[in-house]
Amino acid sequence: MKIYYNPKLKERARELRRNSTYTERLIWKHLRGGQLLGCKFQRQKPIDDYIVDFYCSKLQLVIEIDGISHNGKQNYDKKRENRLKSIGLNVVRIDGYYVLKNVTGALEIIAKRISELEGKTTP
C-alpha cells in the first residue's frame, strides 16, 4: 500500500529525529534494525498530514509514545488516530511515563501487537 505524505513535513521529521525525546530514544534502541521480532521500523515517519513516532510498513503499524507534548491534546490525538486508522493503519499508543518506568512492559505491548498482526497476515 502506498502511503501518501505531505512533503512539507519532510524537514520537520528530520528535525524530530535529530531531537528525539528520551522515551523515544529508549524505545528506538530496541526497535532499530529489526531487533524486535524482526520487524523493521522507521522513526518520525511522515504519513498523510502527520508525523508518527515509529512506523513498520510491513504490518502498517504505527507506534506513538505520548509524552508531555500530548498533554491537553486528547481531541487532536483522537482525530489523528482516527485518520490513521481510516487509511488502514494499526495504531498503538503508549504513555511516555509508562516507558520511563517500564520499558520492558512497553516493548511487550508492542511485541504483542506485532504478533497479533503477523497472525492476521500469515497464511
Protein architecture, described:
- The chain is of the alpha+beta class.
- The chain has one domain: VSR Endonuclease (Endonuclease, Chain A).
- Helix content is 46%, strand content 20%.
- It is built from five helices and four strands.
- The chain has a four-stranded mixed beta sheet, with helices on both faces.
- It is globular.
- The model has no long low-confidence stretch (mean pLDDT 90).
CATH topology heading = Endonuclease, Chain A
Q: Specify the CATH homologous superfamily.
A: VSR Endonuclease
Helix content: 40-55%
Count helical runs.
5
Walk me through the topology.
Elements: H1 10-18, H2 22-31, E1 42-47, E2 50-56, E3 61-66, H3 74-86, E4 90-95, H4 96-101, H5 103-121
Parallel strand pairs: 3-4
Antiparallel strand pairs: 1-2, 2-3
Descriptive terms for the model:
5 helices, globular, 123 residues, Endonuclease, Chain A, alpha+beta, 4 strands, four-stranded mixed beta sheet
Structure summarized in a few sentences:
By secondary structure, the chain is of the alpha+beta class. It contains five helices and four strands, in the order ααβββαβαα.
